[in-house]
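Q: How would the structure tokens look for this protein?
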Amino acid sequence: MCQMCDNLTRRDFLKLSALLTTGAALPLILQQQARAAAEPNAPVRIGYLPITDAAPLLVAHGLGLYDKAGLKADKPVMFRSWSQLTEAFIAGNVNVIHMLAPVTIWARYKTKIPAKVVAWNHTNGSALTVSPSINQITDLSGKTVAVPFWYSIHNIVLQQMLRNSGLEAVMGTPGENQVKLVILSPSDMVPALASGQIHGFIVAEPFNALAEASKVGKILRFTGDVWQNHACCVVMMHENDLTQRPAWSQGVTDAIVNAQKWIRENREQSAQMLSRQDAHHYTPHDNGVLRQVMLPTEALQKSWIESGAIRHPDWHQKRIDFQPWPYPSYFASLTEQLKLTTIEGDNTFIKQLDPQQVAKDLVEEKFVRESIIRAGGMKAFDLPEHTYSREEVITS
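A: Here is the predicted structure in token form.
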């Protein structure tokens, strides 16, 4: 096992755990409030991790959509860890971020951070990638699998798959019918898989595509084929911006929604814009790998169906797709699934959460609803017009 990697990434989780306590967060919250008062016309300051989940925030900047919405936007700032991004957001160093959906629940209801989800960032865009010798979930018995964070859709969906196969997630040495879970940063996952230090990982793109392209791993299952069209990262903003700067907040949301629409219509150009070959240098990823995520070939699609990585081809899903509407049913189901998921640290607050109340309180939907109307309605994202609810489909 990659003990050094495990220690480093576990340290990052513990750092965020310490940060997301009322006592530790309060000075940062006060710092953000003071900064907001001193800078009432602050520009858009994007914070992001270099994963495809950040695409709408970055493409909106690359296309000048914030400017077109009448806003000044600084160059987006890349962070290397969720703890760094979260700390910068709480302190007000950045004011628009993409964040793991379960972390937003942790931040709002355990730490009482005054921030809300304003939109989905994308759908799907993650997978369980394994070493070539693994052919089914039960082959992971006694093995080690990496997740990017305990509070992530990746951890939730992985544990759903393990339970459905009669396997138990553990944090210590795994016994029979047990799988050890460890936290690894996405950039460490492919090397760890290649060296045999782990037997699989579940994470956002493009790291699954990188393992495929490097021929060190194969996709065992797409997460969107387990939880249909799920969100992974969502757009999070400060509550005081939403209440005190509504026109600014509407402009930010307009830009992100228009970027999602543009990405769906210009996948190849989006891959180029996000790549290391582009002048913006938003991510360190190769254009070819990003293109494999945004616009996979028919041959790849066929191979995933044949291998069982896709078991529901009738869902007609993209490897990653983009639509902004934050379905309340998703946040209710997410809360319910968190109650079933093994998570390190004190997570007793989850047991007291009312899923329906979370669905009503966590999201500020008025801005994104207006942005969708301005972008051409739900049909612009291939969704039923004037339909803002759905039933969550979670299967094996």
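Residues 126-229+303-320 form a domain with the D-Maltodextrin-Binding Protein; domain 2 fold (CATH 3.40.190.10).

The CA atoms of residues 120 and 207 lie 21 Å apart.

Upvote if useful.
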